[in-house]
């Protein structure tokens, strides 16, 4: 990253007060505690229903260093290798799990696509740098071991919501693949939802209580500030009623990614329910994801 100190400190919204920044990024407060709790319960209930009776390989350790596990749902059988959607959960890097995050698995299975849902070590037990390493290791597992589990490592789409949108973008970048012995096109397409692509504002909001970032580290972990490189196809999705910070960041990241990116502002959805539309194959986001998969 070639940014001087002035560039690093001069981020969009740096002149806002802390209270204004909190309003832009505190989507839990925007939703309200009752609605937030209801939606978190829906994540788990919909995920449980989606995987009940579904063929799969749950609980596989994908990273010996971190000891974290992933679930494979709806893989191919009898030698079939299905395209893969790797979904990275949100929760501001400190909450949720793979058990809350498989709500799309049955819908994708019906459409010939497998779902891989990894856990990662939550902050503050892990630094954000380590969390990024772990999700990249999950992609590496698909490449090394996918065929033995009914997955096609040549057709991998990564997606995720909120913090998972940030982690998705960190797998879209060039340069990290060599460390894992992967080809440069290990990720063939991507679909971040309501992501965070410039982390510098978070150094001044409550999220930094568990991230512990300074502005320089935040900049180094910000996909919007890093070279787009190989422009793989991406749908950058965000909810119409999302937090202002998330809407602005999604628009900027789509511009940063260039012609390969499509910005999708999903009407009548908020930060937490937009990704649940992946469970409905008639929804715009499901159609967009399946179009990405079938274009590979």
Automatic annotation (TrEMBL):
<dbReference type="InterPro" id="IPR050300">
    <property type="entry name" value="GDXG_lipolytic_enzyme"/>
</dbReference>
<dbReference type="GO" id="GO:0016787">
    <property type="term" value="F:hydrolase activity"/>
</dbReference>
<dbReference type="InterPro" id="IPR029058">
    <property type="entry name" value="AB_hydrolase_fold"/>
</dbReference>
<keyword id="KW-0378">Hydrolase</keyword>
<protein>
    <submittedName>
        <fullName>Alpha/beta hydrolase</fullName>
    </submittedName>
</protein>
<dbReference type="Pfam" id="PF20434">
    <property type="entry name" value="BD-FAE"/>
</dbReference>
<feature type="domain" description="BD-FAE-like">
    <location>
        <begin position="70"/>
        <end position="176"/>
    </location>
</feature>
<dbReference type="InterPro" id="IPR049492">
    <property type="entry name" value="BD-FAE-like_dom"/>
</dbReference>
